[in-house]
């Protein structure tokens, strides 16, 4: 299998298809995965007892460092534990703005949002959390977002007048909570956990919206601020802090819809390749930990579907105007062609879907799975997992 896809003589569509085939062939070799044919599609009735956990990567990882042979050592858990249990989509196309907040908002609304990635705004279109809560009449405690940076504080609910305020998800910003807990000036040892934005370090968002305050977190988790700080001291990264909070939410509230964005990979913007690889390896391990937690928690075991996908990719080493692994500026096929792994009860295991699908297909798929109707989204349900 070739190590990289040549961009010199092919169209973007041909390059995206070649990336897809490369992922398919590698997964077949590594896990024995089979191609899922359209004739194998099936239907699954929705149930109020179903739950969904969505894990996105704020900072995509290129195939060079993951699904190509030279990168497989960086994702041992995905290859050995998760991929064999999943239906794997090899060609998920992001056609929107390649900024982490706006791209994650697009994933959460099923519409390519067009606002400034660094603006302190909420999405213009209803989010999956609003559809879920309004259609199914679910309480606020049943939908949560754990976001990587303060700039994500508005992602829980939109400004759409028919949805919006009061119908969104609770948003937990671990870095903000830790900073508040350390307001007495004892935060020197936590600088590695408090970096808010790797892409534009000058960005300082205005905080507002429905994010959770420190006292609320203590009430939810039944832990003191001191306990929260003590646990944080043992963590190596912000993503580990986020996963800690996810696990606490699962134990205390058992929400039906959980969304977590991992962000450590985006340290690539610093230009440090070793830190970028560390972020990939950590994300791989944390996804495995989350899946094991799902299987071990009585409220989640055998009723939870887990979706894992990057928000988008990163530049090719040979893209004109790009900086390789460091950035995602060119909009080339390696920046836009991502993947998605879906695991859970009733999901076909060790199967590969090679056809192109769209990033905006996530929300309608969640709607079909959980039983709500995202009427304003632009994507289509992915029948391979329904």
Brief synopsis:
This protein is an alpha/beta fold. It has helices at 12-31, 76-82, 100-109, 128-136, 174-181, 191-194, 214-221, 225-233, 238-252, 273-296, 333-336, 362-370; strands spanning 34-35, 51-57, 86-93, 143-146, 170-172, 257-262, 304-310, 337-343, 351-353, 357-358. Helix 2 (76-82) packs parallel to helix 10 (273-296) and helix 9 runs parallel beside helix 10.
Q: What portion of residues belong to β-strands?
A: 5-15%
Largest sheet: 10 strands, mixed
Structural class: alpha/beta
Determine and state the CATH class.
Alpha Beta
Average pLDDT level? 85
By DSSP, the count of extended strands is 10
Cα gyration radius (Å): 20 Å
Per CATH, the architecture is: 3-Layer(aba) Sandwich
Low-confidence stretches: 1-7, 39-47, 201-209
- Report how far apart the termini are: 32 Å
Count of individual helical segments: 12
Overall, the morphology is: globular
Helix content: 25-40%
* Tally of individual domains: 1
The fold-level CATH name is Alkaline Phosphatase, subunit A
Superfamily (CATH H level) name: Alkaline Phosphatase, subunit A
Order of helices and strands: HEEHEHHEEHHHHHEHEHEEEH
